[in-house]
From TrEMBL:
<feature type="domain" description="HTH cro/C1-type">
    <location>
        <begin position="20"/>
        <end position="71"/>
    </location>
</feature>
<dbReference type="GO" id="GO:0003677">
    <property type="term" value="F:DNA binding"/>
</dbReference>
<dbReference type="InterPro" id="IPR010982">
    <property type="entry name" value="Lambda_DNA-bd_dom_sf"/>
</dbReference>
<protein>
    <recommendedName>
        <fullName>HTH cro/C1-type domain-containing protein</fullName>
    </recommendedName>
</protein>
<dbReference type="InterPro" id="IPR001387">
    <property type="entry name" value="Cro/C1-type_HTH"/>
</dbReference>
């Protein structure tokens, strides 16, 4: 049985990837450290191979002691229509 391909927002994916990298950088963490601490496949998330779901993002937020609001706030996406 062929699986239906999920729709992906590539711009959102790149913003999420950059935010995860930014958080790692702020805390001086490697992909491996974050992977060990969270159990998530961080290299696959950061290459865009896997689109992180909300649960994965929440796990990262818990690890860095930030809210989902704080995770998404810098993104300002999608842009508001004027």
């Amino acid at each position: 049985m062929k699986r239906k391909k999920q729709r992906r927002d590539e711009i959102l994916l790149q913003k999420i990837v950059l935010r995860i990298k930014e958080l790692r950088s702020i805390h001086g963490h490697t992909q491996e450290k974050l992977k060990e601490a969270t159990g998530l496949n961080i290299p696959n998330l950061e290459t865009g191979e896997n689109f992180p779901n909300l649960t994965s993002i929440a796990i990262i937020c818990r690890y860095y002691n930030i809210s989902l609001d704080e995770f998404f706030a810098p993104m300002e996406y999608p842009p508001k229509k004027e």
